[in-house]
Amino acid sequence: MTDRAAAGPAAVPVQRIEVATYRFPTDAPESDGTFAWDATTMVLVRAHAEDEVGIGYTYAGPAVATVVDHSLSDVVQGRDALTPGASWAAMQHQVRNLGKPGIAAQAIAAVDIALWDLYARLIGQSLSVAVGAVHDGVPVYGSGGFTSYDDQQLAGQLAGWVEAGIPRVKIKVGREPDRDEHRITVSRNAIGPDTELYVDANGAHQRKQALAWAERFAAHDVRWFEEPVSSDDLAGLRLLRDRGPAGMDIAAGEYGYDLPYFHQMLDAGAVDCLQVDATRCLGVSGALRVSALTDARSIDLSLHCAPQISAHVGTAIWHLRHLEYFHDHSRIEQLVFDGVLQPDSDGVLVPDRSRPGLGVTVRESDIADYRVN
Question: What fold does the segment set 129-363 form as a domain?
Answer without folding.
Answer: TIM Barrel (3.20.20)
